[in-house]
Design a protein that fits this description.
By secondary structure, the protein is mainly α. The chain folds into two domains: about 60 residues; about 60 residues. Helices cover about 55% and strands about 0% of the residues. The protein contains nine helices and no strands. It is rod-shaped, with a radius of gyration of 26 Å.
């Protein structure tokens, strides 16, 4: 059973704006939010709207709450996604550049980097404050790191089947 909705209905002027939005090139999220408000104005309950739009009822309730708080601006609002980036593009590029150089070029006694050694080097030289090995691995993977010393023919690459 659907819970009672205590959200005001859109005005006639708002309904016209929603129709115009649906006729324009809106994103899928904006279209869904506009359709939710139009269906709500037509008297549908949240469960029937969710079934018609093939979304979860909580999505309908969230859209209606957003309309209650922000009016038609809620249709155009794009929610923030994910956490704020901890490292700048310059820091990421520097991590990839360092991984592509051999430790010997930097005066270190190793032939190749491990994630732990590279992370320690970055922290010791105050390039990053803290960084997990897994996060470093993902950064290097996204940065298309060639990872010097761990090429396709190296023993580490063939033993584990992957680089880093």
């Amino acid at each position: 059973m659907a819970r009672p909705l205590r959200v005001r209905k859109p005005t006639l002027r708002q309904l016209r704006r929603l129709q115009q939005l649906l006729e324009s090139e809106a994103s899928a999220r904006q279209r869904r939010r506009a359709e939710v408000l139009l269906l709500y104005a037509a008297g549908h309950d949240a469960i029937s709207m969710a079934q018609a739009l093939q979304v979860h009822p909580q999505t309908i309730y969230a859209d209606l709450r957003a309309f209650q708080q922000h009016g038609l601006r809620s249709v155009a609002q794009v929610p923030l996604r994910g956490a704020v980036a901890r490292f700048s593009p310059a820091q990421r590029n520097e991590m990839v550049r360092l991984a592509d150089t051999t430790p010997a070029e930097l005066g270190l006694p190793w032939g190749r980097w491990s994630l732990a050694k590279l992370r320690d080097y970055l922290q010791r030289h105050k390039m990053v404050r803290s960084l997990s090995r897994e996060h470093l691995r993902r950064i290097l993977k996204k940065g298309a790191c060639r990872c010097a010393g761990s090429g396709a023919n190296s023993s580490a690459s063939t033993r584990s089947g992957r680089r880093f």
